[in-house]
C-alpha cells in the first residue's frame, strides 16, 4: 500500500472521453488517447488495503486487484502485468468491455466513489503490450492429446489458450470468416478497436493454437466426425438464439434483430462492405431493449447519421444511487448509468421525446404499422407499471423507419445441427446441460460460456473458459494444475 491515505486525499478520476462532437465523426475508441497513464498511479493509490477485499468475490476471475493496484501505485508495471495475467487471459478486453462488478464490490464504495479498478486493469494491459510484458508462452512439451474448441468468443479463446499452454494440441473452429465471435462482429469499434483482438490471436498462434475459420460444426463438418478426430471437444458457441417480439406488425420490413445490424456495421469497418445494407443514415430509429446491446446499436446509429434514435427500456428509470435495502453493497446495483453512447445521444438530442438521454423508460411496444409497401413507419407503445402492465391513457406513437430488437438471447442457436448431432441434453431454458465438471452427456464433450450458463458478462465468459480448460486437462491427463476460478453452478452476488 503505497499511500495509506490515498483514498482520503485523492478523488476518483475516470479515463476522460473525447468530446462528443469529435468522436461521433469516427469509429475510434471513445477515450482520449494517452490520457489514462498520467492519472492512473494516483487512482491506484486509492485502494485502501481493506483487509477483506470484496472486489475478489465480485469478480468471477478472482483478479488480484489490491496486489496490482499497489504495484501500479509504485509504477512496477512488469510485476503488475504478471499479477494481472495470472488470473485473466485478456485484460485489455475486460478493461474496455466489462461493466466492472468489482467496483460495485469495492469496500471504498460503501460510502465513497469506488477505486477505478477497470481503468487500472486497462492501463496495465496496454502497458504490458507496449513494454513487451505479454510474450507468447508456448508449452515446453506436447502432451500428445488433441482438443477441438468450437467457438472463438472470450470463452473459447480462454479455454484454447489455457489448454495450449498446458501442452495439448488445440484447434479452434469458428463459423464466421474471422476469429473473435461477438467481440469481432458484435462489439462496435468505438468500444474496442479490433487491433486488441488481433494482437491476442497472433500471440495464441505463436503459442501453437490452430484456427479454423468459416467452419460451422454440424453443417460444414459433422459434429460426430469432429468428435472422432479429437480426444476432447469444448463447445463455446455462445448464446446466439435471439429473443423475438411477437406483436402485430412484426412481419414488416425494416424491423431487424440487433445482431443482424451490428455485424454489418463491423464488416464496414473491416473493409468487407462500403456501406451497410441496414445503415441508419437519415432514418428514424427505434431500439427495443435497454441493455448493452441496445446501447451498442444506439452508438452505431448515431455514427451512421440517423435522423433520430430512441431506445425503449421496459424497466422504470433507476435511481442514481444504490438502494441499500434492495441491493446492498457489495452486490452489483441497478442504477442509472450513462454509457458513452447515451452521453452522445443526450448531447446531440437524438430523441427529443425521451425521458433521459435517448431512453424511454417503462415503455412497452404494442404494435408496428407500415406503409403500402410493407415497410415499418411507426411504433406504438404504452407506459407500464412495475409488473409490466399497461397504464391506461399512456399510449404514444414514434416514427420508425428502422426498428432494432435488442431483447437478449435465450441460448445457443440449434440451426447448425451441432447440438442435435451430438445428442446433447438441454436445460429447460435452452442452454446446454452439464455436470459439476463442465461435462455434457456426450462422452468427452464439454460445454462452457453463454452456451451453457446463459447470457452473461465477459468476465464470466473468460472465467468459464479457464475453468473448463482445467476440467478438460483433468479429463485428458488425470489431474490438472490449471486454475479453475468458478464452477458451473456459481452465480454473481445477489441479495
UniProtKB/TrEMBL annotation:
UniProt keyword list = Amino-acid biosynthesis, Glutamate biosynthesis, Iron, Iron-sulfur, Metal-binding, Oxidoreductase
The coiled-coil regions, if any, are none
Domain 4Fe-4S ferredoxin-type, by residue range, is 38-69
Instruction: Tell me which SUPFAM superfamilies the record gives.
Output: alpha-helical ferredoxin (SSF46548), Nucleotide-binding domain (SSF51971)
Example of a GO MF term: iron-sulfur cluster binding
* InterPro entries (alphabetical): 4Fe4S_Fe-S-bd, DPD_II, FAD/NAD-bd_sf, FAD/NAD-binding_dom, Glut_synth_ssu1, Glutamate_Synthase, Helical_ferredxn
Q: Which Pfam families match?
A: Fer4_20 (PF14691), Pyr_redox_2 (PF07992)
BP GO annotations:
glutamate biosynthetic process
Q: In which pathway does it act?
A: Amino-acid biosynthesis
Recorded hits in PROSITE patterns, A to Z, give: 4FE4S_FER_2
**PANTHER family with a match to the protein in the record:** GLUTAMATE SYNTHASE [NADPH] SMALL CHAIN
- Its protein name is Glutamate synthase subunit beta
Amino acid at each position: 500500500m503505497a499511500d495509506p491515505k490515498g483514498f482520503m486525499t485523492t478523488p476518483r478520476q475516470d479515463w476522460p472521453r473525447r468530446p462528443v462532437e469529435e468522436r461521433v465523426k469516427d469509429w475510434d475508441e471513445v477515450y482520449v488517447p494517452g490520457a489514462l497513464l498520467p492519472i492512473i498511479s494516483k487512482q491506484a493509490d486509492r485502494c485502501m488495503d481493506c483487509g477483506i477485499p470484496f472486489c475478489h468475490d465480485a469478480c468471477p476471475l478472482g483478479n488480484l486487484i489490491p496486489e496490482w493496484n499497489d504495484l501500479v501505485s509504485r509504477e512496477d508495471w512488469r510485476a503488475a502485468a504478471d499479477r494481472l495475467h495470472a488470473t485473466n487471459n485478456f485484460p485489455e478486453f475486460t478493461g474496455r468491455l466489462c461493466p466492472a462488478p468489482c467496483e460495485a464490490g469495492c469496500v471504498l464504495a460503501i460510502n465513497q466513489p469506488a477505486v477505478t479498478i477497470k481503468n487500472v486493469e486497462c492501463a496495465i494491459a496496454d502497458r504490458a503490450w507496449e513494454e513487451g510484458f505479454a510474450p507468447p508462452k508456448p508449452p515446453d512439451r506436447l502432451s500428445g492429446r488433441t482438443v477441438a474448441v468450437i467457438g472463438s468468443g472470450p470463452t473459447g479463446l480462454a479455454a484454447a489458450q489455457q489448454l495450449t499452454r498446458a501442452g495439448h494440441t488445440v484447434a479452434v473452429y469458428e463459423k464466421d470468416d474471422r476469429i473473435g465471435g461477438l467481440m469481432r462482429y458484435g462489439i462496435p469499434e468505438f468500444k474496442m478497436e479490433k487491433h486488441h483482438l488481433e494482437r491476442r490471436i497472433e500471440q495464441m498462434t505463436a503459442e501453437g493454437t490452430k484456427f479454423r475459420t468459416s467452419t460451422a460444426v454440424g453443417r460444414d463438418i459433422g459434429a460426430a466426425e469432429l468428435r472422432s478426430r479429437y480426444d476432447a471437444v469444448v463447445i463455446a458457441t455462445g448464446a446466439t438464439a435471439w429473443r423475438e417480439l411477437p406483436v402485430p406488425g412484426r412481419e414488416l420490413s425494416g424491423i431487424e434483430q440487433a445482431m443482424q445490424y451490428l455485424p454489418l456495421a463491423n464488416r464496414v469497418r473491416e473493409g468487407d462492405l462500403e456501406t451497410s445494407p441496414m445503415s441508419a443514415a437519415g432514418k428514424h430509429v427505434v431500439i427495443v431493449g435497454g441493455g448493452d446491446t441496445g446501447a451498442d446499436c444506439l452508438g452505431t446509429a448515431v455514427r451512421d447519421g440517423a435522423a433520430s434514435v430512441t431506445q425503449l427500456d421496459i424497466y422504470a428509470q433507476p435511481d442514481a444511487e444504490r438502494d441499500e435495502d434492495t441491493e446492498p453493497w457489495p452486490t452489483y446495483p441497478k442504477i442509472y448509468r450513462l454509457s458513452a453512447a447515451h452521453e452522445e445521444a443526450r448531447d446531440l438530442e437524438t430523441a427529443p421525446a425521451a425521458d433521459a438521454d435517448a431512453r424511454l423508460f417503462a415503455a412497452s411496444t404494442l404494435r408496428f404499422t407500415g406503409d403500402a409497401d410493407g415497410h415499418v413507419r411507426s411504433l406504438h407503445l404504452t407506459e407500464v407499471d412495475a409488473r409490466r402492465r399497461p397504464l391506461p391513457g399512456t399510449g404514444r406513437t414514434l416514427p420508425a423507419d428502422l426498428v432494432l430488437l435488442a431483447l437478449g438471447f435465450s441460448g445457443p442457436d440449434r440451426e447448425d445441427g451441432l447440438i442435435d448431432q451430438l445428442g446433447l441434453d438441454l436445460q429447460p431454458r435452452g442452454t446446454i446441460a452439464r455436470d459439476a465438471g463442465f461435462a455434457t452427456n456426450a462422452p468427452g464433450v464439454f460445454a462452457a460460456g453463454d452456451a451453457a450458463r446463459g447470457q452473461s458478462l465477459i468476465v464470466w465468459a473468460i472465467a468459464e473458459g479457464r475453468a473448463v480448460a482445467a476440467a478438460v486437462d483433468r479429463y485428458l491427463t488425470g489431474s490438472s494444475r490449471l486454475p479453475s476460478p468458478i464452477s458451473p453452478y456459481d452465480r454473481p452476488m445477489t441479495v
